[in-house]
Amino acid sequence: MRDPSPTPVRTAEPYRWRWLILAVMIVAEIMDLLDASIVNVAGPDLEKSLGAGSVGLQWVIGGYALTLGAGLVLGGRLGDRYGRRRMFLAGLAAFTAASLLCAAAPNTGTLIAFRLLQGTAGAMLLLQGLGLLRENFSGPELTRVFAIFGPVLGLGGIIGPVLGGFLIEGDFFGLGWRSVFLVNLPVGIAALIVAAKFVPRKAGDRTVRVDLTGAALVMVSCALLVLPLNQGQEEGWPLWTWLSMAASVAGFALFALQQRRTAAAGREPLVTPGLLRKPAFTVGLGGIALFFGGLIGSQLVLTLFLQIGRHFTAGEAGLGNLPLAVGTAIGGAVSGAFLADRIGRKVLQVGPLVQLAGAAVLWRELDGLDAASFSIWDIVPGVTVAGVGAGMVIAALFSFILAAVDDDEIGSASGVLSAVQAVGGSIGVAVFGSVFFTRAESGDFTGGFRYALIVQACLLLVFLAITFLLPRKGRPEEGQHGGTPTATAEGPGAAPPLTV
Fold it and tell me: Taking 90 as the threshold, does the pLDDT of residue 485 lie above it?
């Protein structure tokens, strides 16, 4: 007589090299995100070497974030179709090659073009790396992986200006600013060799269709917005700048319409159309753009003030960013460890208030500055307090916006939020750079810094109003990374927040 008990189901053994994959992904993604901020301290050297003016510097810094953000919308679908391993290796190889091209750039225009290419490759690299982690980890292990992955990625933004300042001031082999790009070569090549050997092959799904029309609309609309913001102040805001911004708004509206029609026709859109019908998610997109635009823009102005206004070396300016980084880390730790769980949405309201308090302290600190005896210690309190407030928001913002979407929309929503965060940073670089240089051109560097603080305060007040429209409770950490790899429009490569 046969045993009626069911036959145990044998589960597949976890891939033995999966933790090595995690290490490679962390190294590659830190390199990717580090390049968003490592160039911040290179302004004076770029001006001496290539003749880069204020607009050129804004493009070198903001152009990377622009194509990184626009590429995040498309990258997940390419991984679904062609395979995550293949696209990760292609993205890593392209990023490394683009870094070499940036280092060899003979003029500002060429450097900007290569930075745009580097940002595009960076978007591909980021999404495929996250997707590969999903393919090789599952259950509680996947939750632990993302718990490690997120904070470590934050190191990229924190050490970017510090590492950049060290490399430029060290002037190793007489390379100057070019070393901030060349440092990617040994790291990228080593990661490429290890990934090619140990990341398992998994075929993509050639039935997946890539919405190139939607991707093109996003990229063109972003460019139409950032172009006049970068060029407008230099050229006196001619008519074409206003027409370009209006065309950008029309382009984004056309993209939303095109995505709805794509879904209605039974094809797979880049963005789940239902997301844009959720008011809390839609206003959350605006909140992310405002918050990160203000944060990244003001961080750039701090660096410009130290280097151009107070003649700090690249290394000193890099270290001058440490109070902001330390404050952000403290605020993020407090918010993530217990504050967000205890007070819910209020953490998003306390955070900007703390930032505003830091800006007020910094404003007072700028009052009595003596250019001859100035040191970074003169502004450490205000910068640190502002950083604490920023960290409180960064650690919790995504979870509250994602609480407004359905479980099967998490992947698409995360990808969109990360893309808006990156593009918002690019816009912040353009706006705050223009604000600062408007005063700096006449030698009023303190006034330029203060104007930037006023703009940031306005953005924070609007962001504060937006937070009252978000859900009262955030989505738990384990629920922020989606369910199964095939359940979302962005697939397994949906991105968590990009830490600054």
Answer: no
Residue with the bigger pLDDT between 5 and 318: it is 318
Q: Residue 443 corresponds to which amino acid?
A: G
User: For 226-260, what is each residue's pLDDT tens digit?
Assistant: 999 888 878 888 999 999 999 999 999 999 899 88
68, two tokens:
């990184």
Q: What is the pLDDT of residue 310?
A: 87
- Percent residues over pLDDT 90 in the chain: 32
Question: What is the distance between the alpha carbons of residues 102 and 113, in angstroms, rounded to a whole number?
Answer: 9
C-alpha distances in angstroms, 454 versus 288, 392, 443, 450, 451? 19, 21, 19, 6, 5
Burial class (CB within 10 angstroms; exposed 0-12, middle 13-18, buried 19+) of 357: middle
* Structure tokens given for 207: 């039935």
What percentage of the chain has pLDDT greater than the value 70?
88
C-alpha atoms less than 13 angstroms from C-alpha of 467 in its C-beta half-sphere: 25
What type of residue is 276? L
Q: Are 262 and 216 in contact (CB under 8 A)?
A: no
Helix 139-170 with 322-334: angle, nearest 10 deg: 170
CA contacts within 13 A on the Cβ side of 360: 8
Tabulate helix, strand, coil % of the chain (nearest 5).
Answer: 80, 0, 20
The two structure tokens encoding residue 499: 């830490």
Phi, psi of 417 (to 5 degrees): -60, -45
CA distance 51 to 263: 48
Task: Write the pLDDT tens digit of every residue in 167-218.
Answer: 888 888 888 899 999 999 999 999 999 989 888 888 777 777 888 898 899 9
d(CA 290, CA 41): 23
Please report where in the chains the tokens 């603080």 appear, as a residue: 453
With a CB cutoff of 8 Å and minimum separation 6, the contacts of 36 are 64, 65, 68, 156, 157, 160, 422, 425
State how far the Cα of 326 lies from the Cα of 51, in Å rounded to an integer: 34
In sequence order, the 6+-apart residues with CB closer than 8 A to the CB of 259 are 211, 214, 269, 270, 271, 273, 276
Average pLDDT score over residue span 47-61: 86
Predicted model pTM: 0.84
Pairwise CA distance, residues 296 & 309, whole Å: 19
Encode pLDDT of 263-286 as tens digits: 888 888 888 878 878 888 899 999
Q: Is 268 exposed, middle or buried (0-12, 13-18, 19+ CB in 10 A)?
A: middle
With vertex at residue 83, the alpha carbon angle to CA 96 and CA 145, rounded to the nearest 5 degrees, is 75
